[in-house]
Amino acid sequence: MEKRIKVIIISLMLIGTLLMAGCNESNPDKVLSESDKTEIKKMLANVDSKVDILLFTSESGCYSCSKTETLMKEFDQLSDKISLKVYDTEKNRDMATKYNIELVPAIVVIGKEDYGIKHYGFPGGKEFNPLLEVIISSSMERPKVSEEIGKKVNTISNPVEVKIFVTPTCPSCPDMVRGAYYYSLVSEKISTVTIMSNEFEEYSKYYKISAVPTVIFNEKFSKEGQMAEEAFVNYLVVSS
Amino acid sequence: MDVFDVAILGGGPAGISAGIYAARFKLNAVVISNSLGGTAQTAHLIENYPGTGVISGFELMQKFKEHLKSFEIPVIEKHVYSASKENDIFTIKLTDEEVKAKYILIATGTKRRKLGVPGESQFYGKGVSYCVTCDAFFYRDKTVAVIGGSDAANMAAILLASMAKKVYVIYRKEKLRGELVWIERVITNPKIEVLYNSNVIEVKGKEFVEGVKLEDGREISVDGVFVEIGSIPECCCANDLGIEINQKGYIQVDSSQKTNVDGVYAAGDVTSGSNGFQQIVTAASEGVIAIKSIFDDMERSKVTLWKKE
Predict the structure, then answer these.
(1) Which of B2, B137, B191, B284 has a CA 20 to 30 Å removed from the CA of A56?
(2) Where does the FAD/NAD(P)-binding domain lie (chain B) (predicted)?
(3) B77-113 per-position pLDDT tens digit
(4) Which ipTM did the prediction report?
(5) A3-126 and A147-239 share one CATH topology?
């Protein structure tokens, strides 16, 4: 079985209840419990090469910056191959501009190359697993797709940014996020941004979000609910 | 290609419990589901699954998944398109591969029932929702309607009342049904108003939902509509294999969870079993009974083969 697929299946099983409350009840200053750390360490053993995680925060105030920084610092300690760099967006405007940071906290994953993976908000609830999986997958080469899908992906003419609005309690959101991350790994023309709608009310209102998952393709098309892979790829093609 | 002893179609409480017991019976089994955890994951709170106290549907189903994983039963997370039977072997067609098995256990559960009124589809994602745990957040300090009067509707109303300004429960009958615990919480919640004997005939709005129209002519202004009017069975492959379906659309099973087709068993909410009482605990139980029946069948067939030799 392909290593990447194996990782996804294992993570589905192992880390399900992680971060549901977004805090470690026995120690409120920490986010991950010892059992969380043990499971994540096992997962991170699959990391092939170094992965940089860029965390953008703001000193001037942010709903979940502090909690997200605590989580990512704890995460950073769980593998030698993970390297966390924390940037205050006000003090590091060049970096924030380079990675087009619109909201904080923002997590940017740079693995073997920049696969265009970004997450806005505290990655808690059901959204931790897809992020963990893509951190591992980004340490590997781009995945190979079937000939049929490859042909379609090759017709994507211009870069496509996929924005996925989610909430931490949405059961169908992680699959949508996984699918989008996968295509970001497949094609250098596709980037994916996950937005925790519960943290960014105004941003969600701007995009008229009232259900999750909602996917915005290149600011052109909006699609609510779960989507079949074929439909997702078709949207990628037409929005490019 | 390997031929599994049993292919379990569905990854909800019935399918996962079946997978666990299949492993215990040393069957060469596979669980196939494009949504491992099933619709039980969307339950806001589960308070009646023995041994777990109060737990969210998501957390409970994670525990199911973890338990399944401990047995190293393969899980294929793909959609099942069709099934066929030839020479006593079933071929199950998935998105881009086929799986072969000697037995199949259909545990595909149900999908949400829709109102079927004007405006419902038009405003899906624009005020109409079928997932309260996903979308309740968007209705903070707003007015919403929950359509339905069962446990799911009652739970949805309670969750929404923790965020919304006002919650209408609109139900076609004269009293709510389901567990009395939930009914009591609904009728004593000051934010919730129950409209009995009321049928929604239209969801109204412009860009987003603005209200619902009732059969008696009343119009209720709401910002969101949560549809909780039950579910309909997802009888995967029933037509392909000639499986008997009862008048209500559920797969007809006997007390061993066997269908009318040799080698095909069914369990959980998709079946006529458990006296129609669709609960996580009854689904799990049906999955387990089905696997035991399949195991017994296999054992019996071995004896027959030996006698023939």
Answers:
(1) B137
(2) 4-287
(3) 788 889 999 999 999 998 778 999 999 999 999 988 9
(4) 0.75
(5) yes
Tokens for B229? 């009017």
Whether residue B237 lies in the annotated active site: no
Q: Tokens 């492959």 label which residue?
A: B237
Q: Which residue of B has its CA nearest to A17?
A: B59
Distances (CA, A) of A77 to A27, A50, A80, B101: 17, 14, 7, 45
The matching CATH number, chosen from 1.10.287.3510, 2.60.40.420, 3.40.30.10, 3.10.20.30, for A3-126 is: 3.40.30.10
To the nearest whole Å, the CA of B58 is away from the closest chain A CA by 7
pLDDT tens sequence across B31-61: 999 888 888 988 878 889 999 998 888 889 9
Q: Say whether B77 and A9 touch across the interface (CB within 8 A).
A: yes
The answer to whether B14 and B107 have CB atoms below 8 angstroms apart is: yes
> Strand locations in B126-217, DSSP E?
128-129, 143-147, 166-170, 192-195, 200-205, 209-214
pTM, rounded to two decimals = 0.77
Residue B96 has what pLDDT?
72
Active-site residue, B135 included = yes
